[in-house]
What does this fold into?
Amino acid sequence: MAAVAPSRLAALSRLRCEIFQTAYNPTSVRTGAKYLRARLRGPSMINYYPEQLTVPRFNHMAGNFKIQHWDEYQRLADVEEKKRRGKGVPKKAKSPAESRRQSRKR
Amino acid sequence: MPNVRVLRDLKARHGVNANEILRRAYLYVARNQTLPPQVRFQAQLQLNTFGRYTRPTTVKNRCTETGKGRGIISEFGLSRYQFRLKALANELPGVRKASW
It folds into this structure.
C-alpha cells in the first residue's frame, strides 16, 4: 500500500473541518475557544440554596400587611439590656493609640 | 437564618454570576496564543483586578440545611448527618436504608 502524502492528509483534515463546521487548527494552537464554548455557570450557581421565606422578606413582599419580627425584637431588647448593665459593645477607637489591639499581649 | 459562611458563599455566587461574561472575555484573550503577547498580558492584568468574590473557585457547595462545609453529599446538597436524618424521615424520594 502506497504511503499517503502529508499534504493530502492535511487537505483531508481541512475538508473534514469544513464539513463538520469545526475550526481548522492543525498545529493545535491554544485559541482560548474553550472559554467561550463552555456554558455559563453563574445562573445555576445562584440557585444552589433553596429560597427561604424569612420575616423581613415577607414584610418586604407583603406591602401593608406586616408581621412582628419577634427574634429581632428580642435581640434588640437584649442589646439594650446589656448596654444598661454596662456590658455593651466598646466604643469605636478614634485613633490607633486607643485601639485595644495595641495593648493586647502577644 | 443562614450562617455567615453561607452568606459569604452567597455573596461569592452572586459576584461570579455578575462578572462571569466579562471574566470569560478576558480569559479568552489572555489564553489565546494567536494574539500578541502584549495584549494577552494586559488581559491577564485585568483578570487580576477582579475581586475575590468573582472567581468561581471561591464558591463552595455547603449544606443547604445547616451550612456545614464538609461531608456534603452533592446529589442532595446536604451534609452526611442531615442526609441521614432526612433519609430516615422519608424526606428524600428514592432513598431507603439498606437492609439485607
Remarks:
- Chain A touches chain B at residues 29-33, 35-36, 38, 40-43, 45-46, 48-50, 52, 54 (CB under 8 Å).
- Chain A is about 50% helix and 0% strand.
